[in-house]
Amino acid sequence: MRYISTRGQAPALNFEDVLLAGLATDGGLYVPENLPRFTQEEIASWAGLPYHELAFRVMRPFVTGSIPDADFKKILEETYGVFAHSSVAPLRQLNGNEWVLELFHGPTLAFKDFALQLLGRLLDYVLEKRGERVVIVGATSGDTGSAAIEGCKHCENVDIFILHPHNRVSEVQRRQMTTIFGENIHNIAIEGNFDDCQEMVKNSFADQSFLKGTRLVAVNSINWARIMAQIVYYFHAALQLGGPARSVSFSVPTGNFGDIFAGYLARNMGLPINQLIVATNRNDILHRFMSGNQYVKETLHATLSPSMDIMVSSNFERLLFDLHGRNGAAIAGLMDSFKQGGGFSVEQERWTEARKLFDSLAVDDAQTCETIAEVYEQTGEVLDPHTAIGVKAARECRRSLDIPMVILGTAHPVKFPDAVEKAGVGKALELPAHLSDLFERDERCTVLPNDLKAVQAFVSQHGNRGKPL
Question: Which helix (H) or strand (E) holds 32?
């Protein structure tokens, strides 16, 4: 399997090199040169498989030539063996044909664990084989940071620096990052928003001279391995609901477009998906594109669903690449237009093609709270604000009541007590046993200004397990 850049000017790489490269040298994102496709009979034969075995079958084509089957199977068994639920990603029914796919049974109670528990193990495997050491600089709007730290904290050849927007993540999200100590773990609170953090990461990839020769690796969803791992649970959910003999629809809370892009890939790999709903909060750049062909950057607002407080959706570039016939020059031009002018539209026929599969809705904080309260009254289930947005979007945008609708449950509600309290839900939420003392733990975090040079100087000074790079 070879991977190419969405901007067409970077060399094609194998999986191992893509894992370590993250962003392509031309500023683009890596995608498979050719997407594997499974027959309906092949997909049907996977019904009832344990999650790690299903994951092996779905992801094996992406790592062929880089990781032997036996090693990959072992990595996957270890990855999904740490999840608290035996099903790994159980489905919970809300009503007759509406389901929540619970993706929060991993160590940090968010869907990011599915990819980042795997990514940490893959990095360990590849770096040990190569005898290399790397630096991770990642940006988080809330959940990626703790999942990345949890997934990579035992990696012997990794130093990890996570940037989060100061005072713009929930207390549980922050503490899940700042209470994990290690010589190779560094939390940085940036006096800015998530887009500022994400821009710093991208700029650091573009010029890595501050690392003095050490390689930079991405844990954000620009890293192909993140997307690859998320494809699996679309197959997992569909198989439980009668797929591939019947189609399934999905509503996906998304800010960076990675999770829903994985669903788009699952469909292109042969899984019958009828509809993908982009569920966003007030920061609605994706909704404005899907509903009106306007991808225009606006002011970023803090909301009750902070993991989606994103205005520049990195992974959207991967979809645009397909919509433009995989024309790298066209994508480079679009991205340049966005950088210079803050927005763009695409040709009508390309937008119309996207609308055949995608619908969207933007949900504000008041509607989010109303949905949390409504679902609790109807079912006794407490939703986190991101999942509630997914439910609201599913109910507003659903094309067919006959086709099962799966809402991706992206986080445990205990991570967002403010939203649950504002919704008027009186049910006490308790942290799982392994996090029961979270609010008593010491924290370690460095607050830095919204300044790229200050961040890069900090990384250079504290890399290599506390020794300057």
Answer: strand 30-32
* 87-90 contacts, C-beta under 8 A, 24 or more apart: 87/51, 88/51, 88/52, 88/236, 89/51, 89/114, 89/233, 89/236, 89/237
Report residue 427: phi and psi, to 5°: -65, 130
Confidence of residue 443 (pLDDT cuts 50, 70, 90): very high
14, 3 contact by CB (below 8 A): yes
Which residues are CB-neighbours of 222 under 8 A, at least 6 positions away? 22, 23, 29, 314, 315
Do the strands 343-344 and 446-448 form a parallel or antiparallel pair, or are they unpaired? unpaired
pLDDT band with cut points at 50, 70 and 90 for residue 162: very high
Where are the extended beta strands (E) located within 297-392? 343-344, 358-362
Chain-centre distance for alpha carbon 369:
23
pLDDT above 90: percentage of residues in the chain: 83
Q: Can 415 be counted among the known catalytic residues? A: no
CB 283, CB 254: distance < 8 Å? no
Please, is 181 exposed, middle or buried when counting C-beta atoms within 10 Å of its C-beta (0-12, 13-18, 19+)? Answer: exposed
Per-residue model confidence (pLDDT) at position 467: 58
Spell out the domains of the chain, with CATH numbers in brackets. Answer: 85-107+224-422 (3.40.50.1100)
Rounded to the nearest 10 degrees, the angle between the axes of helix 112-130 and helix 69-80 is: 140
Q: Which residues, in sequence order, are bridge partners of residue 95?
A: 98
Compute the average pLDDT of residues 30-58. 98
Q: Tens digit of pLDDT for each residue in 459-469? A: 999 877 555 55
Q: Which one from 73, 112, 202, 212 is the annotated catalytic residue? A: 112
Alpha-carbon span 281 to 361, nearest angstrom: 8
Q: Where are the alpha helices (DSSP H) in 132-257?
A: 143-152, 171-178, 194-206, 224-240
